[in-house]
Write a structure and sequence with these properties.
Elements (H helix, E strand, L loop, with lengths): L22 H20 L6 H28 L3 H22 L2 H14 L5 H16 L6 H31 L1 E4 L10 H13 L5 E4 L2 H10 L3 H12 L15 H17 L5 H5 L8 H34 L9 H13 L3 H5 L4 H16 L2 E5 L10 E6 L5 E10 L9 E6 L2 E2 L5 E2 L2 E8 L12 H19 L20 H7 L5 H4 L14 H9 L5 H20 L8 H13 L15 H4 L9 H17 L6 H12 L7 H9 L6 H6 L4
Parallel strand pairs: 5-9
Antiparallel strand pairs: 1-2, 3-4, 4-5, 6-9, 7-8
Helix pairs in contact: 1-2, 1-3, 2-3, 3-6, 4-5, 6-10, 12-20, 16-17, 17-23, 20-21, 24-25
Length: 678
């Protein structure tokens, strides 16, 4: 085990020396070590902060630092061996932490420490211990032996199913390609996307152009291709991923997995005395009841529906007049919406993206956070990355003190799961020695890579996505909390965790901010005022439809997990159909199996929590108003946001932090205004 780099406590993962075969053995070794430490803690006569909390946190941190790169590589460099090592490690960790959550002796030690020292504990220490004790209870520590065993069995089965769900999406997505020998069927698709399709074909030893279901390629076709038949083909493939309707194979079908996941979640909830999984999930969220969530979503739906109907009416008239389309099909909507935007706003994504070369955007992002928070971001040259496109950066505060590090992995590629996310690599914590462990983040996107003839560009949506994920990263890296369990995003209520990320998106619509990085890649000229006004005019373009779509996802997720039936056969399909009757204004094709690839709720931690995006957007829009009310880029307001939101992590309830920053409870009006619904 001496040569296993995953066991070395270096500041960063050493990817070049990381052997795939070492992954599971490292986790096994660290879990066994963790068990030995727990055995000693169980028998402590007098638990203290050092011999209990610090001791176990230190051991958990070792596991976390070994597990983080394994988990990450499974998402961004997936292959058969990594997947096997990941799944074996996941099984072991799920079982191990499931048993810890039900360890009565360990629970008793934490309880004793809390009760005996309650008066002398700091705010952070109290919050940490309260969270830990709550975690034990939500793991079934108070159950009898039979129920504890059943609950743990459910946990272990659930972890396997959630992992399989995600792998099926990746495998089905990777299996589909469509090759064209000539360019004729691809008219309308931007040159940059065609060049990447040409490079993809060459890599596969194919002639011409090869399309994939990678997000950049898919969106380029759906938005710009003049070939309706091609758009339909792409749509049906993408919308049926991981289902029996998928054109390549049904072997990656997630239908039964969804049903099994729902059964297990319901069973776990009932064992703990909750009516359903939605109720169980709210134990760690801001929302106080299931009714509060449903009422929130329904109130937004009412505001969105009338605007959405008007937006669809406009698009239908436009499609009929200009393209002789009597019906807008699902594979037409993005195309027609883009054509309408071009004609009525005089702006196209392709024209706009020329002002957003990736390098410029990154520079602008770093300038913004320096202006807001006084932090400097510097490139750290290293060969210790998992792919040649990946970069490592360091963040320093105004006192030149290192605050954290992060990796950027921005481009789509095969064997990398879709979407964008921030994940923890290393957490901030204070060591027993008194030194601070610097936090490290993985920040991942899936935009179009550079081609042979042009640099990489972002669409404006890609810019928003990067800013969003960096917002998560800032909360992780700028935290000043000394305990891993409540530092960064840890311990933050799930329906508040999107506050810093959605907050960052607002800056992408401000001319003063865009002027710092939106330069044409050839002329180097700033984004013209005329073009910015056109962009701004599109801000609330189809926001009703976009909001309604998010409400559809949120209601589907929450109602699905509120269902108390023991049998879940076709439950997801039926609830989604019922929700769509009230929210969807576009006909849904019978082969659409959206639920089968809805990773957020079936494998991504958002189960009974997808509403969090809109819940937190209320907070983020209101928080941004604090800047709009002053000078836009105001260092004092920025310092306040940094201190009261970003640095504080999960050490206080999210609502308390917001009130501390804003001086009052959140209001929904700023969000409605920003969406053009007021």
């Amino acid at each position: 085990m001496e040569k296993n780099t995953l066991l070395k406590t270096s500041a960063l993962p050493v990817f070049s020396k990381m052997k795939k075969g070492d992954m599971f053995p490292a986790i096994k070794y660290l879990v066994d070590e963790n068990k030995s430490i727990i055995a000693k803690i169980e028998n402590l006569k007098a638990p203290t902060w050092n011999n209990l909390v610090y001791k176990l946190e230190e051991s958990d941190d070792k596991i976390s630092k070994a597990w983080a790169p394994i988990r990450h590589l499974n998402s961004v460099m997936n292959d058969k061996e990594i997947r096997t090592q990941y799944e074996k490690s996941l099984d072991l960790l799920t079982s191990h932490y499931g048993k810890i959550g039900q360890n009565k002796k360990l629970f008793s030690q934490y309880e004793k420490l809390y009760e005996q020292n309650r008066v002398n504990l700091t705010q952070s220490q109290s919050k940490l211990l309260e969270n830990i004790l709550r975690g034990f209870k939500l793991s079934g520590v108070h159950l009898d032996a039979k129920k504890r065993k059943l609950f743990r069995s459910c946990q272990e089965k659930l972890a396997k199913l959630e992992s399989k769900f995600e792998q099926n999406i990746l495998d089905s997505s990777n299996s589909w390609t469509k090759n064209f020998k000539t360019i004729n069927p691809l008219k309308g698709i931007p040159q940059s996307a065609l060049e990447i399709a040409e490079e993809t074909a060459a890599k596969r030893n194919e002639v011409g152009y090869t399309l994939t279901l990678d997000q950049p390629c898919y969106m380029a076709v759906m938005t710009f291709s003049n070939n309706q038949s091609l758009r339909k083909t792409m749509y049906l493939a993408y919308a049926s991923r991981a289902s029996k309707k998928f054109p390549v194979s049904g072997k990656w079908d997630n239908t039964k997995i969804i049903e099994d996941i729902l059964v297990l979640r319901q069973e776990m909830s009932k064992i703990l005395g909750y009516k359903n999984y939605a109720e169980y999930s709210l134990a760690t969220k801001m929302a106080k009841s299931t009714n509060e969530v449903i009422d929130f979503l329904e109130s937004l739906k009412i505001k969105a529906i009338s605007k959405s109907k008007k937006e669809m009416s406009v698009l239908r008239k436009f499609a009929k007049k200009n393209y002789n389309l009597k019906t807008i099909n699902p594979w037409d909507i993005a195309y027609i919406a883009e054509k309408y935007k071009e004609e009525n706003f005089g702006i196209s994504q392709e024209e706009l993206k020329q002002y957003f070369p990736v390098e410029n955007v990154i520079t602008g992002l770093f300038k913004l956070v320096k202006s807001l928070y006084g932090i400097d971001v510097k490139l750290k040259k290293t060969k210790e990355v998992w792919h040649e496109d990946v970069r490592l950066y360091e963040i320093f505060d105004r006192n030149k003190k290192l605050r954290g590090k992060f990796y950027f992995d921005l481009y789509a590629r095969q064997n990398k799961r879709g979407g964008a996310w921030m994940d923890e690599c290393i957490q901030r914590r204070k060591k027993l020695s008194g030194s601070i462990q610097s936090p490290v983040a993985f920040i991942t996107c899936n935009s179009s890579p550079p081609s042979k003839t042009s640099p990489a560009f972002f669409t404006h949506y890609d810019v928003e996505t990067l800013f969003h994920e960096f917002g998560h990263g800032l909360q992780h890296m700028l935290t000043t909390v000394n305990y891993a369990g409540i530092s960064g995003i840890s311990g933050v209520e799930w329906d508040a965790v999107e506050l810093p990320s959605q907050f960052m998106e607002n800056w992408c619509w401000e001319k003063d901010v865009l002027d710092t990085f939106a330069f044409h890649y050839k002329t180097k000229k700033k984004l013209p005022n005329s073009l910015f006004k056109k962009l701004l005019a599109t801000k609330n373009y189809n926001t009703g439809l976009a909001l309604l779509r998010q409400i559809e996802f949120s209601l589907f997720d929450f109602l699905l997990h509120m269902n108390e039936r023991n049998k879940k056969t076709k439950l997801a399909e039926n609830i989604l159909r019922d929700v769509r009757k009230k929210t969807s204004l576009i006909p849904v094709h019978k082969n659409n199996k959206f639920e089968n690839s809805f990773a957020h709720i079936f494998s991504g931690g958002y189960a009974a929590g997808y509403y969090s995006y809109k819940w937190a957007e209320v907070l983020s829009a209101d928080a941004f108003m604090a800047f709009k009310e002053k000078k836009l880029v105001d260092r004092r307001v920025g310092a306040s946001f940094m201190k009261k939101i970003l640095e504080t992590g999960g050490s206080k309830p999210a609502l308390d932090l917001f009130i501390d920053f804003r001086g009052r409870e959140p209001k929904i009006e700023p969000l409605l205004t920003s969406l053009g619904l007021k």
